[in-house]
Amino acid sequence: MNNKLSGLIAATYTPLDDNGQLDTDPILPMTEWLITQGVSGLYVCGSTGEGMSLSGAERRKVAEAYVQSAGGRVPVIVHVGHNSLVEARQLADHAQQIGANYISATCPSYFRINDVGTLVDCMAEVAAGSPQLPFYYYHIPALTGSTLDMVEFLKLGDKRIPNLQGLKYTDTKLHEFQQCLELENGRFDVLWGCDEMLLGALATGAGAAIGSTYNIAAPLYLGIMDAFRLGDLVEARRLQSLSVEMIRAIGKYPFHAAMKAVLGFNGFDIGSCRLPQVRLLESEIETLRNDLSLLGYFEWSQPSCRLSAISS
């Protein structure tokens, strides 16, 4: 279980129809497009994929559709976190049965976890549902409210979770991220989860990142990675700045509904989001399109625009 992930992993979206019902038909063409864009993995039914707003049956259908669409070409990580550890373990078992490559889970968050030992107990229960699959704990304190020390979690988890692979680290503490990466001579795979800070994470040692905006601008982020590898930090900073501007433009609106609108601009009609996330007005969608156009998004987001093709 030591094979570490690399590159950009798209936190995938869940297509819904106009009535808010699950529609898996767009998953295959979206998967093809993501692979064409240069994405090297798929993270399914996480925050981006509205996993917490889907029923268990719907989550299983979405996971199955992405595993089938990927067809072994890129790894698929299925998020199975749930407030019910029983349900989370069953989702983990299902992920293993359908041929997913990895599982991941947030912690229960309705009843707050206040110590690392309890967090490890919870994640051990979930990970045991698919003992043959590597497990990543999904650390996203902004949504779960759990701000526990991830270095301590990895130390204790290593003793009690046999299939613990590492973390999906969706926080902004680069110092903690670095400590997790370096723990036990790099034993753990720690995946960066803040798109706006990819360059900082690369400088800290990140080898892979999971993000929402990799769905719509993978060539931009691959450009950042290329420039960093070449030692061209001026170019890497310029491209990261474009990412920040793009995310600020999208962030003027309900974020994931806006992201689904941007996917619509790219030819994928996948509806909006379920409550409590709200829909965009048609006027907001058009304003968003104009805002992105002013940034040159529709030029530099295309697969042909890699590093040297992205002009100042």
TrEMBL record:
Species this chain originates from: Novipirellula herctigrandis
Sequence positions that bind pyruvate: T48, I210
Gene Ontology CC: one annotated term: cytoplasm
InterPro entries for this protein: Aldolase_TIM, DapA-like, Schiff_base-form_aldolases_CS
Domain of life: Bacteria
Keyword DNA damage among UniProt keywords: no
Protein's UniProt name: N-acetylneuraminate lyase
Keywords from the named record: Carbohydrate metabolism, Cytoplasm, Lyase, Schiff base
Protein family: Belongs to the DapA family.
Record's subcellular location: Cytoplasm
Name of encoding gene: nanA
Active site per database record: Y138, K168
